[in-house]
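Deliverable D4.2, example record:
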Amino acid sequence: MIVLDHVIKRYGEHVAVNDVTLNVKAGEIFGFLGPNGAGKTSTIKMMMGLMKPTSGTISIGGHDIRKDPVAAKKVTGYIPDRPILYEKLTAWEYMKFIAGLYDIDKKDLEERGEKFLGIFSLKEWKHELIENFSHGMKQRLNLSAVFMRNPRVLILDEPLIGLDPRGARLIKEILHASRRNGMCIFMSTHILEIAEQMCDRLAIINKGNIISAGTAEEIRNQAHSSESDLEQVFLHLTGGEDVMNIVNELQG
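Output generated by the structure prediction step:
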């Protein structure tokens, strides 16, 4: 469902993404991990057609994002880390706007739009201006609009940022249910515990390169690490052992 084939992104002399090849299947939650500046956001922006790769190809749902961007985006839902919404609209006006963009008929808007506003505890706020929403409420509205569309592919960049514990638990349950229904889910996160709990497979990117990929157990084996804690393995692979040295010094 998501295929990246030898994707490279350069900014002048700087290589942000270096020869990345990935294949994410339907019915799978795929975690994309890496330290700040590793190339995660650049990769996601290229997948969404917001940025052109320097070389290589990206296919979403069988559609080349450069050759047929409309078809690729039609089957894709995107949740950025910071929700981008039209704040002078009410929540329901925004849902109607999204329904119009994706040719969702009035019946499905009424049924699925109301359903997901209810699921994300926004029904009583449906006629409130978005500018009055908290960050978490805006994120929940974004999620409501995306799930209303029932996309085949879902790309999430730090989806739990700004959500309270109930909202975070809810999105985790919805993602698992969506995976069981065949959705392909690509999720970037800094929370390694969440990644290990939720994801079927993971890839770790560092300095633009995929340095490890597979299940959590396979990544441990690739790192030749005896650590059972994925955070320790991540730090080992990405050169973050200095963090643990500092912690040990403070404790000493």
